[in-house]
Amino acid sequence: MTERRRDDEGAVSEATEELLSDPASPANDPDRRPPQTTDAEPSDDDAAT
Fold it and tell me: What is the rounded average pLDDT for all residues in the chain?
């Protein structure tokens, strides 16, 4: 049973890598990605407190 689980995880991993490496994949649609945020500079809200 353990070997089968490893095989399944490997297949999922390979499929995920294949999708992420394909620029036409819906997984790579910029509208689906969360916005990238950086805390390098304090926001106005932080300065007010």
Answer: 62
